[in-house]
Amino acid sequence: MAGDDTASTSAPKPVTPIAQYQCPKLKNTNYTVWAIQIKVILEAHGLWEAIETKDNTEVDTKKDKATIAFLYQALTEDVILQVAGCETAKELWDSLKTRHVGEEKVQQARLQSLMIGFNTLQMKDEDTVDAFTAKLNSYATKARELGKTLDESLLVRKLLDATPDRFIQIVASIEQTSDLDDISLDEITGKLKAFEERIKLRKGGSSVKA
How far is the C-alpha of 117 from the C-alpha of 181, rounded, in Å? Predict the structure, then answer.
């Protein structure tokens, strides 16, 4: 029985290998989020101390090399070539931070300029619904490339707010009968296009009668 008790005792679970964690790749537009993710994963493996060392504290060589190897998994080939001369994990981390904090400021300036354009965007009388929606999607794509996601509800509200007076009737109807947080941009576009076509047909009929 004693043997059975010994056999039934659960053995300690092995430490999860680093390779089982999916390393987020560092890009030009995601440094802030990337750094947070990598820090959490390094802390989970007891490796963050190789980066955040205290004064006069010597870092364990194996941990330092393991941290460098881990960081390399999160870098693209061109970035690895740029930082290959770094000898310690902290030196590598600081080099990445210096490079991308500067780039991040440029990205923020570009994003700010982009959002000014987005906020002032208005649909012109000669614009079709499809053409204006394409402009909105273009802004959303550019913002995403700069690290910001324009929510569907934001795009929906922007489309409704930016339409000319000829759409005032359908816009009012949509705002009264729809939940703008749940309706998609495609649905709104479809409703506006149907209204747009109805206006064209009426104008065409009036011209024929005249």
Answer: 23
**Could you give the CA distance from residue 149 to residue 140 in angstroms, rounded to a whole number?**
7
For 87, the token pair is 């000898």
- CB half-sphere exposure, 130, CA atoms < 13 A: 3
Report the first-to-last Cα separation within the chain, whole angstroms.
104
Mean pLDDT taken over the chain = 84
DSSP 184: -
What's at 155, amino acid-wise?
L
pLDDT digits (tens, 9 = 90+) for 145-191: 777 899 999 999 999 999 999 999 999 999 999 999 999 999 999 99
Neighbouring CB atoms inside 10 A of 121's CB total: 15
The domain limits of the chain are 18-104, 124-201
